[in-house]
Amino acid sequence: MSGLAQQIFRTSTYCRLACWRHPSNIRYHNTLSTRKGRIGHRFFQNLASENEQKAQKNVPASTSTPGTSNPLEPPQVTAAQERRSNWRMVKNLMVNVWPRNDWKTRGTVILGFAFLVSGKVLNVQVPLLFKQIIDSLNLPIDLSSSATVWTIAGATILGYGAARIGAIVFSELLNAVFANIGQRAVRKVARETFEQLLNMDMRFHLARQTGGLTRAIDRGTKGITFLLQAILFRIAPTALEISMVCGILTYKFGWDFAAITAGTLAAYAWFTIRTTSWRTQFRRDANKADQRAASSSVDSLINFEAVKHFNNERYEVAQYDKHLRDYEQSSVKITTSLAFLNSGQNVIFSTALTMTMLMAAQGVVNGKCKSGIVLSLPLNFLGTIYRELQQNLLDMEVLFNLREDNPPIEDLPGAQPLDLPVDAGKSIRFENVKFAYHPSRPIFTDLSFTIPAGKRVAFVGPSGCGKSTILRLLFRFYEPSSGRILIGDQDISQIQLASLRKSIGVVPQDTPLFHADVMHNVRYGNLEKDEFDVIDAAKKANVHEAILRLPDGYKTKVGERGLMISGGEKQRLAVARVLLKDPPILFFDEATSALDAHTEAELMKNISTALLHKSRTSIFIAHRLRTVVEADLIVVLQDGRVAEQGRHEELLRKGGLYHRMWQQQQAAAELLEVEEPAN
């Protein structure tokens, strides 16, 4: 919507303003404009605004791990809690508009508001000057004199034109001044949110879905943009303009006219706020349905191989369509309730307009005329803004909930860097550690063991005994409920996270690769290294020759999640990446479980060769016991505790759990060897 003066110029408001002193000016009413154009313009503007809002939806995840609430779906709250939450979001956002100790930004804001006030003062003067032009031209003119339009109303016409131009210029200057502030605020909030998301613990990331998370960020930043624009460019200017017009009306026409104006404002605001609050639930339902549709589609696309393997395309489409149907039903409720809102607003406005017209008619009879029509456009404009503001606050709700309700694991006050020389190393100790992903399913009940510095230590045991959880606790993805984890004499809870994680390198079971070239994926282990260091690490991991055989060598794109290269190549790239990081502690989390026997043997040979270059503490999580027979220490886990530990030969002689597992795997391997020749 353009400035108020431009809107009034296209309406019959001007004609009514011309009645202030001369009732005879009513004859100009039918020659200037009609209200139909204004109503049509406002109708299509509201419709376009509503359609635009429908495109910006809330997308929390639809699944969660046991015992973990959905981190992207806002909880049910009372109206009072919602108001407090909305106010908190606005306050958090306005901190970026008026930042502490940033006088340059504050000066820009002050300059912008100076443009705002100047523009609105001129905007209110436009209809007043137009009235004076009509009054001047309506006076009897002596045709025999040399009087012209210029001599009669020339100065007023120039003032009218200058006021219109000045209002537009100040409005554009305001937009230019605040553009940098608004975009900087959006960038800062989005950056802080993304940084916090990356720092969230594993509970959060296991409970969310990628599609929902990215849509939440996108939707929230769009809501921030609208909120800033609404507050700075629409609500504050319109409120200022209404205040100025009310002052003029009170000064010129008395308190009876001002009372009708104030009552209209109060009724209009009350109805708009109450109805919009009622419509909020429809918006939430539509957001939830849309978020589930987005999560379903992304989940299906990510797992497209499983969809095709089981021929379940129709099922996935049906699931997606179910969520779209729910969204459709909620959207219909949004549209019908919007019709109710607009109808009620128009009833209140039309009632006030009828009362003011009756007063104006009485004024005509008495030789004077009073008009409140100047308020018509600002009043309706505020109703539209409040509705859109409430919708965008809903869109921002998930974004700010992520920032406030899911605090990441952070450094404790006074945390120190990890004192861990690369060459010497230090032991790692778990002391009486208790931990559970879910309260009813404890993983560790009283776990204690020691990993000697510079040794190869393997952890084995039945599935679900918590082997991989050791890495997650050591990396501080989770915090133990009790007990301590120490590296040397330092409790890892007292160590700076960045220092701790920099000292640990991981070769996971499923190597995460970015949709980028091989060079970037290996260099990701240490972004400060150059391509010569990357090639050297690849050679140590015995993957250099395989890379050169790729179509574009180190510049070959590996595809999303590395699907364009083999599993063995992915694992060797993971080894190269961790060698480039060059940490004192290496962790191999079932790094060969997805490989065939030949590739597994080659990879273990590569790992053994790489470990010869430097003495490191190496931790292996293994399912296949033959991959850890050369370990300096094997720790066998069962029922949340250490069942036994020792070297391979010692554990076999004990005849305990490890011995039984070894015999089972050897029998299975012999059976496969017998079946393969037959096939």
UniProtKB/TrEMBL annotation:
The keyword Disulfide bond does not apply. GO terms for biological process: intracellular iron ion homeostasis; transition metal ion transport. One of its GO terms (cellular component) is mitochondrial inner membrane. It comes from the Eukaryota. Homodimer. InterPro entries: AAA+_ATPase (IPR003593), ABC1_TM_dom (IPR011527), ABC1_TM_sf (IPR036640), ABC_transporter-like_ATP-bd (IPR003439), ABC_transporter-like_CS (IPR017871), P-loop_NTPase (IPR027417), Type_1_exporter (IPR039421). Belongs to the ABC transporter superfamily. ABCB family. Heavy Metal importer (TC 3.A.1.210) subfamily. CDD domains: ABC_6TM_ATM1_ABCB7, ABCC_ATM1_transporter. Residues 54-81 are annotated as: Disordered. Residues 59-71 have a biased composition (Polar residues). GO terms for molecular function: ABC-type transporter activity; ATP binding; ATP hydrolysis activity. It comes from Lentinula detonsa. This is Iron-sulfur clusters transporter ATM1, mitochondrial. It is a multi-pass membrane protein. Residues 428-664 form the ABC transporter domain. Residues 110-368 form the ABC transmembrane type-1 domain. The keyword ATP-binding applies.
